[in-house]
Design goal:
Layout lengths: L2 H6 L3 E10 L4 E7 L11 E6 L3 E6 L2 E3 L2 E7 L3 H7 L6 E8 L9 E7 L3 H11 L5 E8 L8 H7 L5 E5 L6 E2 L3 H10 L4 E5 L2 H14 L2 E5 L15 E2 L2 E2 H4 L2 E3 H6 L7 E3 L5 E3 L1
Parallel strand pairs: 8-9, 8-12, 9-10, 10-11, 12-13
Antiparallel strand pairs: 1-2, 1-7, 2-6, 3-4, 3-7, 5-6, 13-16, 14-15, 17-18
The structure holds flavin-adenine dinucleotide and FE2/S2 (inorganic) cluster.
The site of flavin-adenine dinucleotide has 22 residues, from strand 4, strand 6 and helix 2.
Length: 272
């Protein structure tokens, strides 16, 4: 194990600097941590909530000795975290995993749910470099559309398309529907995707059909975060060590599982 991995893998105490409510189910937590403050878009940290669990979270902002994560309350650990206030002490390891490459061409980002958070981090880095920056963002309902204002500020003028499943905002459909039309009328050099895996699968199929470069960030159950336990496998890859960002060629190698199934907590395969 390299000296650097030993350092990032050491459990450190961290203090919550601020908490921001983004939607009825999502809050952004800013944490003090010098190592995670050096993270690149795509990387994740492991946050230890004392007495509950340690969970993987994508870093959505980093710098100035701080890192932020946007957390959706879905279960025991995330619900306990949502009760936490500024000043509370937690444990942190990381940053772990690889990061998105930074394309300077015509870029399209596709985000679903909290998957929008790491893409916003990337979009801020690319805003000054990319030839064009467009975003398709999807959610079940208006309340769950995250970071719309921030995305409008960084994307090329009028190039954010919002979709909701219930039609309460933007176009009533899944995020992948306008994507198909957009790819039919505009040329893109790179697609970045992060969100629910069935969404990523659809984006992968469209990018493969049109031969467009793609990088997607995957989620799997994670325990160790450093490639040892095997709980995060997809095909020949371990998402924590080889990802979480995978390119189209790698995604093609795991087509049998992508958007279809994953390992559950008991090690048995479960449908997605
Ligand atoms: C690389 C990566 C980045 C992630 N980034 C974010 C993020 O930025 N924001 C966010 O809200 N969530 C993110 N997640 C998912 C987050 O880790 C889970 O929602 C969290 O672990 C759930 O814990 P819980 O105890 O609240 O829920 P549980 O009661 O344990 O489970 C609720 C649901 O969450 C899923 N889940 C549980 N544990 C894990 C785990 N260790 N890894 C992945 N999924 C799990 C289960 O499939 C289940 O459906 C990320 C996951 C990964 C792998
Ligand atoms: S979480 Fe243990 S190998 Fe990936």
């Amino acid at each position: 194990m390299s000296v650097f991995l030993t350092a990032v893998n050491t459990l450190r105490t961290t203090c919550i600097l601020s908490v921001k409510t983004e939607s009825p189910t999502v809050k952004t937590f800013t944490l003090k941590d010098k190592l995670c403050a050096k993270a690149k878009p795509g990387q994740f940290l492991m946050l230890w909530i004392p007495g509950v669990d340690e969970i993987p979270l994508s870093i959505m902002n980093a710098g100035d000795s701080q890192a932020s994560v946007a957390v959706k309350a879905v279960g025991e650990a995330t619900r306990r975290l949502h009760e936490a206030k500024s000043g509370e002490i937690l444990g942190v390891r990381g940053p772990f995993g690889n990061s998105f490459t930074e394309s300077c061409g015509r870029v399209l980002m596709v985000g679903g749910g909290t998957g929008t958070a790491p893409l916003l981090f990337l979009a801020k880095k690319l805003a000054a470099k990319a030839e064009r920056l467009s975003f398709v963002i999807g959610a079940k309902t208006k309340n769950e559309l995250l970071f719309l204002g921030e995305l409008d500020a960084v994307c090329t003028e009028q190039s954010t398309i919002a979709t909701t499943e219930d039609g309460s905002y933007g176009i009533q459909c899944l995020a992948t529907e306008p994507l198909e039309k957009l790819l039919g009328r505009e040329k893109f050099d790179m697609i970045y995707a992060c969100g629910p895996e069935p969404m990523i699968r659809k984006v992968f199929d469209l990018a493969e059909k049109r031969r467009i470069a793609l990088e997607a960030s995957l989620e799997r159950l994670m325990r160790c975060g450093i490639g040892l336990c095997g709980s995060c496998v997809i095909g020949k890859y371990r998402v924590c060590r080889d990802g979480p960002v995978f390119n189209a060629a790698q995604l093609s190698e795991v087509k049998d599982e992508l958007g279809i199934s994953k390992l559950g907590f008991d090690g048995n395969r479960i449908p997605l």
